[in-house]
Amino acid sequence: MAVVGTGFGGLGAAVRLRRAGVTDFVVLERADSVGGTWRDNSYPGCACDVPSHLYAFSFAPNPDWPRTFSGQEHIRAYLDHVADVFRLRRHIRFNSEVKRMTWNSERLWWDIETSSGRLCADVVVSATGPLSDPRIPDLPGIDSFPGKVFHSARWDHDYDLRGKRVAVVGTGASAIQIVPEIQPRVGRLTLFQRTPPWVMPRVDRAISGIERRLHRHLPFTTRLRRGFLWGVREVQVQAFTRHPGELGLVERMAKRNMARAVKDPALRAKLTPDYRLGCKRILLSNTYYPALTRPNVDVVASSLAEIDGSTVVAADGTRAEADAIVFGTGFHVTDMPIAERVVGADGRTLADTWAESGMRSLRGASAAGFPNWLTIIGPNTGLGNSSMILVIESQLNYMVDFLRQLGALGGRVALDARPAAVTAWNLRVQERMKRTVWSTGGCTSWYLDASGRNTTIWPGTTTEFRSATRRVHLDEYEVLRETTKATETRKTEAGA
């Protein structure tokens, strides 16, 4: 087996493989350390917007989270801890970026080319995640900009922002954490806002030593805390998926939160969304709005359109001088780059297949024409209000049952998702999507692909997703077996 990536998905897969008795596997990592998006995103203020005790594996609870919402450095340390405690490093090949994965229809395995060599695997688990490859808009004049340019996920810690004129592009989850952190030390900060976000207070605090000792010595208290946090979000999700009208009360709370910090009616008008709360991800911050009211901050209610020398120009014509441009413009989510490197049974890449039909899979895991290939956090597995670790663990259950089914079938065998099963699953998902806030809320979000189809979010509860991925249904797959000729050839090569 080959697992790609060492974020939550990849490390979780490695733990579950070892627990299932599978030891002949490798984890391929393009960087020189584990952590995935929590390694790559180290920008000022980087933190999680999911409560700490819900943002951990159920099989590896952490009683020592220092805050109710953890910072990047604590989450990365947790992932390092998981890699060490479960002795996963012996399986990891660092600096091994996957260049190409090609299905060998004769041998029923994957031929894999990496930056550190070649290998083959009976089964591939792709855990690269949707937040791994930054998206930077191709703007006119950007190549001739004389200053510094970088994405939030590739923060340049060697560049000193003190006294600089900084343009921040985007108002997503990263930007609202970055802006309050850098505002006090930059000379001038110009924020380019294409769409204002809904921002709620961040109820964050330090977890006391007494609480941590309690969790350490009485583990069931950690499980109770996690269960409470999970239960609240399971109830809340109904408003997102079935009754978006119920979100009106929360919108009024969000507006009051803004009014307390932003007294200027003109600025408040710029910052007020014109779409339903929840249509885009709800953001949490106590410092974002206050930072925007400071004398050295300008909010441009328009997207960045072009760059003219050291001048950044918005779509509405607003111009500002800049020494540095920081892009908080998200990631390649609906066009994951790994798909361009996966070649299926018909010789086409997964990207080519999805270009025709849109990004889709069976139960968020399997794609038709790509046998024995599973993805963690695949199409329509994202969550709008809860912890992705819950989805990841559900998909790991599916992975383990997938392997169990292969073992029960015996011999060299592969499972290929039937096109009809993939189509049926996605029709059900998209039908449920129609009444959700992500479809009816009146916004354009990164959840949508180029055709306006939501290929990112799961339109239900995590309980429903866990039920749907509890086991592999063999009638949804075509069983492929090695030909007699291929078997004889393989035995001859093994003997030689």
Automatic annotation (TrEMBL):
One of its Pfam families is FMO-like
Question: Which UniProt keywords are listed?
Answer: FAD, Flavoprotein, Monooxygenase, Oxidoreductase
Highest taxon listed in the record's lineage? Bacteria
**EC number(s) reported in the record:** 1.14.13.-
Any one GO MF term held by the record is: monooxygenase activity
Indicate whether Oxidoreductase appears among the record's keywords.
Answer: yes
Its family? Belongs to the FAD-binding monooxygenase family.
Q: Which PANTHER family match?
A: FAD_NAD(P)-BINDING DOMAIN-CONTAINING PROTEIN-RELATED, L-ORNITHINE N(5)-MONOOXYGENASE-RELATED
Q: What's the protein here called?
A: Flavin-containing monooxygenase
The organism is: Streptomyces bluensis
Lineage per the UniProt record: Bacteria, Bacillati, Actinomycetota, Actinomycetes, Kitasatosporales
